[in-house]
Design brief:
Shape: globular
Order of helices and strands: HHHEEHEEEHEEEHEHE
Strand order of the largest sheet: 3-4-2-5-6-7-8-10
Structural class: alpha/beta
Radius of gyration: 17 Å
Helix content: 25-40%
């Protein structure tokens, strides 16, 4: 697939090169280690590209989103409908839509990703992952959510501006940028409230917000 050719070739090859022979299994990395290395390399890799190379930047951000989702577990009852699909919804307009569409058919939690367009939160019943662009964040936050505790992985892409932290109620994961680096925040308290579980490996790479005692 195009996504594998453009992202896995670039990021995984770069990750292998930067690992400098540190892998203990005969020089080979496990799939989980490769995914984690892709995320780590992305922290310094994403915005080093030319400013006008927006398509490549969008592919890297898409790799972040896909790999983050792969380290998330949904409640068993959510995925107990027998479907072979998991829905990734784009909230209203999103500038990385073309890159996101390239991961249709990739697997998360053993299900194939299907891409859907969402214009209103009243119709988000079928969404397992909800991606919100920076220009649509205020519209999303101003809408009344039918069920704020539904186990939906909400991801806001706020990398268009340089900032250290963005905490918003109702957003579980936020992509952020600091200079030439891209990273992500996880609202751990809200994640627990909606019943999603995130792996410890993912949490180690994130900035944790909302983890109130």
């Amino acid at each position: 697939m195009e996504f594998r050719a453009l992202i896995e070739t670039e990021l995984i090859a770069d990750a292998r090169a930067r690992s400098d022979g540190a892998a203990s299994n005969g020089g080979f990395l496990s799939p989980a280690a490769i995914l984690l290395l892709c995320l780590v390399i992305g922290l310094t890799f994403s915005f080093v590209v030319k400013a006008d190379d927006s398509s490549r930047i969008n592919r890297v951000k898409t790799a972040f989103i896909l790999n983050i989702a792969r380290f998330v577990s949904w409640p068993a009852e959510v995925l107990a409908d027998g479907s072979a699909e998991i829905s990734l919804c784009l909230y209203r307009n999103n500038p990385i839509r073309q890159a996101i569409e390239s991961i249709a058919g990739e697997e998360v939690s053993g299900r194939r990703i299907v891409i859907k367009q969402l214009h209103s939160l009243t119709k988000n019943d079928a969404c397992n992952i909800l991606l919100i662009g920076q220009d649509e964040l205020q519209a999303y936050l101003s809408e009344t959510q039918p069920d704020p505790n539904r186990p939906v992985l909400t991801i806001a892409d706020l990398t268009d501006t340089d900032s250290h932290t963005h905490r918003h109620d109702g957003i579980l994961v936020t992509l952020i940028r600091n200079g030439a680096r891209i990273g992500f925040e996880i609202n751990l308290q809200k994640t627990r409230e909606v019943g999603l579980r995130m792996s410890s490996e993912l949490l180690k790479l994130a900035i944790i917000v909302g983890d109130d005692p």
